[in-house]
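Per-residue structure
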Amino acid sequence: VQLQASGGGLVQAGGSLTLSCAVSGSIFRFNAMNWYRQAPGKQREYVATITNNGATDYINSVKGRFTIYKDNRKKTMYLQMNNLKPEDTAVYYCRQDEYWGHGTLVTVSS
């Protein structure tokens, strides 16, 4: 199983980005998937989860701004990020069980 995250970039505060996580392997539709992030000098933190039946969960700091969703046919998970803030700057990682993607950098300028 391999996870490939993409979609990061530089955006001004208040802007939007959509991250993607493409999964190779056959377990995509059956297991929950997560987004994590690691800001410079900080520990990696959990951001959001989507379960196999589509239930979602978010950390408080992104509720109402971020949306996690997936496309089972494309074996891809997404993180729609709106109203981005400088404190959202981090490398974003996708995860499924013990498998992690390499991360994609999101930089939000003030």
